[in-house]
Amino acid sequence: RLNSSCRPETELRPPSSGSACKGLLPVAGCAIIRPPRDGGIRYRGLTQDVQVLPVDYEIEYICRGNRVIVGPKVRKCLPDGTWTDLTQHSRCLLLCARVWTSLENGRVSHWPPGPPVEGTVLSYSCLPGFILIGRNSTHCNKMGKWDTPKPVCHCEWRLQHALYIGALFPMSGGWPGGQACLPAARMALNLVNRRSDILPDYELELIHYDSMCDPGQATKLLYDLLYTEPIKVLLLPGCSSVSTLVAEAARMWNLIVLSYGSSSPALSNRQRFPTFFRTHPSATLHNPTRVQLFQKWKWTKIATIQQTTEVFTSTLDDLEERVKEAGIEISVRQSFLTDPAVAVKNLKRQDARIIVGLFYETEARKVFCEVYKEKLYGKKHVWFLIGWYADNWFKIHDPSINCTVEQMTEAVEGHVTTEIVMLNPETVRGASNLTSQEFLAQLMSELGGKNPEETGGFQEAPLAYDAIWAMALALNKTVGPLRAKGRRLEDFNYNNRDITAEIYRALNTSSFEGVSGHVVFDAQGSRMAWTLIEQLQGGSYKKIGYYDSTKGNLSWYGNDKWIGPGPPADQTVVIEEFRYLSQKLFVSVSVFAGLGILLGIVCLTFNIYNSNVRYIQNSQPYLNNITAVGCMMALAAVFPLGIDGLHVARRQFPVVCQFRLWLLGLGFSLAYGSMFTKIWWVHTVFTKKEDKKDKRKHLEPFKLYATVGVLLGVDVLSLMIWQIVDPLHITVEKFTREAPKGDLDVLIQPLLEHCSSEKMNTWLGVVYGYKGLLLLLGIFLAYETKSISTEKINDHRAVGMAIYNVAVLCMITAPVTMILTSQQDASFAFASLAIVLVVYITLVVLCVCWQSDAQETMKTGSSTNNNDEEKSRQLERENKELQKIIQEVTPPSHWSTLAPSHWSTLAPSHWSTLAPLPLIHCSPLPLVHSSPLPLVHSSPLPLVHSSPLPLVHSSPLPLVTSSPLRLVHCSPSHWSTVAPSHWSTVAPSHWSTLAPSHWSTL
Question: How confident is the model at residue 792 (pLDDT cuts 50, 70, 90)?
Answer without folding.
Answer: low
